[in-house]
Write a structure and sequence with these properties.
493 residues, mainly alpha, Growth Hormone, Chain: A, 18 helices, globular
Length: 493
């Protein structure tokens, strides 16, 4: 019995009386991560085959970052007017409406809404240094889908869900809850992977059914998109219903001693100007911001070259989606296994758990850069396909580093917010999560896009050595920042 009790403590440290709170949160996390995984595949599969992987740098710097700044201001305003529950409904519903407008109106009629290919080719010929900006305008409908697909992760997951969790769960309980929430949520990645794999199969029942309903579809991608957006919408509505259930039936039956804060006291009062002043004066939020920026920058300088290789190997949208479906299955499986290990590390040491993500990224990222930069020389020795090897090495880097991120980085970061005031947990978190995440990716994008503007013929392959130097420098800054944040966290907690 003692042995079984220890096994349970390692694998499932949730007590029976806590299940009524834990399980709805876990199901909500599952729904949100399912949509995140599906949207990540859709946005990349639309933009990269159509415009090239190099355009991602320009999108993250010149389009997604300004959108994140605007969204942060909107969120601060909404938080002063509505409760966190109502803000969640407003934002999720808005995202779902955007996805439907793109999939059912813009995409099937893109020849009407998008400029002609002849006009775009002429403009690129006349202004070669601005060709990537011209390409962005040429597929503005795809770009809207890309923006909201990108914002889903930082707004719905990092901001809305984790802020909700931080408000009702104390630090000691979070060390047990958060890794397992991530583990169950990451099952959504696996289910999303299987769903994508099924929907790109032209012989599947769902595909054949929708094809018969839409005989005038412009291509196979339209049918696949419509199927995916149907599922994304249904799952998004489920997430909203679960939140409503928790407010109506769970919190009223839980003792206030079992909750960190009053789940209904979520509306903030500081003005936008006062909120900005409060955030800028907080050294603690500054350390979290640097941590988030470092992650975003590091993952961006690796993902760009990798996605370029994936596009080279899988040039069509449906081929890219099929690859990403399998990628999500492996990602989810890795996250589940990493969470079991990570949850036990986190319960013993917040600092060691926080160090695991940059440590994993520096090892796997360095190996990927070696394959990309010196792949041809390695090929001469071992005789393999350098392109396929680079894609596999990049996939392994993404899977291992992101599974560590989802299981440990997110949990340690969220626990760091818990000791803060409601204003800093709400608006400081908004600044760190929405702006910080996109700022990190935008800084990486700035380096890449600046080179592409100066040298229109440059590709990711030609600039990879420079990206490797940036990668190692930022990882070093990340380690130093975590040491300082750990000192501040000990004082507060």
């Amino acid at each position: 019995m003692v042995f079984l009790s220890k096994v349970k403590e390692v694998l499932w440290p949730i007590q029976r009386q806590e299940l009524k709170l834990f399980m709805p949160m876990a199901l909500m996390m599952f729904c949100i991560l399912f949509n995140f995984s599906a949207l990540r595949s859709v946005k990349d599969a639309l933009v990269i085959p159509a415009l090239g992987a190099e355009v991602i740098s320009f999108l993250k710097l010149w389009v997604v970052l300004p959108a994140a700044l605007i969204f942060t201001l909107i969120y601060v305003k909404l938080s002063n007017v509505f409760s966190a529950e109502k803000v969640f409904y407003i934002i999720v519903a808005s995202f779902l409406v955007i996805f439907w407008i793109f999939t059912y109106i813009i995409y099937p009629n893109q020849d009407i809404y998008h400029p002609s290919s002849e006009l775009i080719a002429k403009l690129i010929y006349q202004f070669p240094n601005f060709k990537w900006f011209i390409k962005i305008v040429s597929k503005w409908g795809y770009i809207i889908m890309y923006i909201f697909g990108e914002l889903w992760s930082v707004v719905i997951i990092n901001l809305m869900f984790w802020q909700f969790a931080n408000h009702i769960i104390d630090t000691s309980k979070a060390r047990r809850f958060y890794p397992l929430l991530a583990m169950i949520g990451n099952l959504g990645l696996i289910f999303a992977g299987f769903s994508i794999g099924s929907f790109v199969d032209t012989h599947s029942a769902g595909y054949v059914w929708l094809r018969d309903l839409t005989p005038n579809a412009i291509n196979d991608t339209e049918i696949t998109l419509k199927l995916l957006v149907m599922i994304i919408t249904a799952v998004g509505i489920c997430a909203m219903l679960i939140l409503r259930y928790m407010h109506a039936h769970v919190f009223v039956h839980i003792s206030s001693n079992d909750l960190s804060h009053n789940p209904y006291a979520t509306q903030t009062s500081l003005s936008t100007k006062e909120s900005i002043k409060l955030i800028l004066s907080s050294k603690y939020i500054g350390y979290i911001l640097v941590m988030v920026v470092c992650y975003g920058l590091v993952i961006n300088v690796v993902e760009g070259p990798w996605k370029s290789k994936v596009r080279e190997l899988y040039p069509s949208t449906n081929e890219y989606l099929a690859f990403m479906g399998n990628f999500n299955i492996w990602m989810g499986s890795s996250c589940v296994m990493m969470t079991i290990l990570g949850s036990n590390i986190l319960r013993r040491s917040w600092f060691i758990a926080a160090l695991m993500t940059p440590a994993m990224m520096v090892v796997t990222g360095t190996l990927f850069f070696i394959f990309v930069i010196w792949g041809s020389k390695i090929d001469d020795i071992f005789s393999f396909n350098p392109l396929y090897a680079a894609v596999l090495a990049g996939a392994a880097q993404n899977i291992l580093s992101k599974s560590t991120k989802y299981s440990l980085f997110d949990s340690t970061k969220e626990i760091a917010y818990i000791p803060l005031s409601v204003e800093l947990r709400t608006k400081g978190k908004a600044a760190a999560e929405i702006v910080g995440a996109k700022l990190g990716k935008s800084l990486g994008a700035f380096v890449q896009s600046f080179i592409f503007i100066l040298y229109p013929s440059a590709t990711f392959e030609s600039i990879t050595p420079m990206l490797m130097i940036v990668f190692l420098l930022v990882i070093t800054i990340w380690f130093i920042d975590l040491s300082k944040l750990n000192n501040e966290y000990k004082k507060l907690s």
